[in-house]
Write a structure and sequence with these properties.
Elements (H helix, E strand, L loop, with lengths): L4 H4 L10 H11 L5 E2 L11 H12 L12 H15 L8 E4 L1 H13 L5 E6 L5 H7 L3 E6 L10 H11 L3 E5 L11 H13 L3 E5 L24 E6 L12 E4 L5 H9 L7 H11 L2 H23 L6 E2 L7 E5 L7 H12 L1 E2 L1 E2 L10 E5 L4 H18 L1
Parallel strand pairs: 1-11, 3-4, 3-5, 5-6, 6-7
Antiparallel strand pairs: 2-8, 7-8, 9-10, 10-13, 12-13
Helix pairs in contact: 3-10, 5-6, 5-9, 7-8, 11-13
Bound molecules: 4'-deoxy-4'-aminopyridoxal-5'-phosphate (PMP).
């Protein structure tokens, strides 16, 4: 079959960074007892009340084609949510419902890029970013956020990358996967200044906006002059433990959304009505429910800090947000890849090598705080003991 270059080059040819994860899964299948700290999936399931709302909606007839832009009630609720939380006036026309944040990312890049156009993204990065850019024929170009700068991008680095590449778009993610960085106002102002200077569209992935442990979540869309050049990606996956429901959204300026709707009509043709109804119900559970979903990660972040106190083989900069920890294991002299492999083989603990999130996270491993507290704490202690044995 004569496949397109666009589709056959989506991964960029390199390793996709999942080797360790696949190895761990194979070991589990062979009966090994492996503690998995690899995946960004809650250890709880979607709340029964949400499933019941989904069930009732399906029985009530929400099984036909749903409105392609999303059901009005959900779009309206998302619009109000953003308006309240960010202060930016937002109407139903600014909101399109998508199959998770991932489909919103795809739609946003499709909206910004023609074949051969360049998009900047920040490394360390969430695994799908460069592939999503390539999947619309774009060329991904990474900008490093240095570990020693708290994984925050700087004006200088972004400005230089934009000037040199002639990029059309810039993707940012705060709270950040994998680093846990939360971009403060200064960082966002710097990004906004670069976007204005180089006429970039900003795609702001805010799927972890309900998981902030230090500071506050600020949407770059709320900064002066940014609304007209920003797409915001949101999702029910992380905030409401609804990863499998595939409900997310893209929020953008009035001028762009009719075009994005044309794309949705010609790609997914809408999201299942009963899952949208379930999302609507879930949003109605209010902030206390979102706090309940986020609480385990905040708790485990503290457990990890305690477990790692008084040792110096591992450096932990406690994450400001999201459900991950980045452990700096450079004192061992090993790469993240080698460390993760040795840890898996010697102690049966699977973590993600930092390198799988880009070179800026080399010498680190990412821990997903997605197993119950007691085994989580035990695993962190085990990792500390293992690291000490290496140094
Ligand atoms: N962005 C980031 C940073 C993520 O970590 C994820 C999921 N792990 C997504 C987007 C996509 O999530 P979903 O499609 O489930 O909304």
């Amino acid at each position: 079959m004569r496949l397109s270059k666009t589709i056959t080059t989506i991964t960029g040819g390199g390793s996709d960074g999942w080797d360790l994860f696949i190895k761990a899964r194979k070991m589990i299948a062979q009966g090994h007892d492996i503690t998995e700290l690899t995946i960004g999936e809650h250890d709880i399931k979607t709340d029964t009340r949400i499933i019941e709302a989904m069930h009732a909606a399906a029985l009530g007839g929400a099984t036909g084609y749903a409105m392609v832009p999303g059901i009005d009630t959900l779009r309206e609720t998302v619009a109000k949510r953003l308006a309240t939380r960010t202060g930016v006036p937002t109407t139903t026309d600014n909101v399109l419902i998508t199959a998770g944040g991932q489909a919103a990312l795809f739609a946003a890049f499709r909206a910004c890029l023609d074949a051969g156009d360049i998009a900047l993204y920040i490394t360390p990065y969430y695994a799908t970013y460069p592939g999503t850019i390539r999947s619309v024929g774009g060329i991904p170009k990474s900008v490093t956020a240095e570990a020693d700068n708290g994984f925050l991008p700087t004006f200088e680095a972004l400005d230089a990358a934009a000037a040199e590449s002639g990029a059309k778009a810039l993707l940012i993610n705060s709270p950040n996967n994998p680093t846990g960085a939360v971009y403060g106002r200064d960082t966002l102002e710097a990004i906004a200044a670069v976007a204005k200077k180089h006429d970039l569209i900003v795609i702001s992935d805010e799927v972890y906006d309900t998981q902030v442990w230090e500071g506050e979540h600020i949407s770059i869309r709320s900064l002066e002059g940014m609304e007209e050049r920003t797409f915001v990606v949101g999702s029910m996956s992380k905030s409401h433990a609804m990863t499998g429901s595939r409900v997310g959204w893209l929020v953008g300026p009035d001028s762009a959304m009719p075009h994005v709707l044309n794309l949705l009509t010609n790609t997914n043709y809408g999201v299942a009505g009963f899952t949208q109804q379930a999302a609507l119900f879930a949003l109605g559970l209010g902030e206390s429910f979102e706090e309940e979903i986020a609480a385990p990660f905040q708790r485990r972040r503290l457990l990890a800090q305690k477990a790692l106190a008084g040792q110096n083989a591992i450096r932990l900069s406690p994450p400001s947000g999201a459900m991950y920890l980045m452990l700096d294991i450079r004192a061992t002299g090993l790469s993240g890849d080698d460390f993760a492999d040795k840890l898996l083989m010697a102690r049966g603990i699977a973590v993600m090598p930092g390198e799988s999130f880009g070179p800026a996270a080399a010498g680190h491993v990412r821990i997903a705080m997605t197993i119950p507290d007691a085994p989580f704490e035990a695993a962190i202690k085990e990792i500390a003991a293992f690291t000490a044995s290496l140094t």
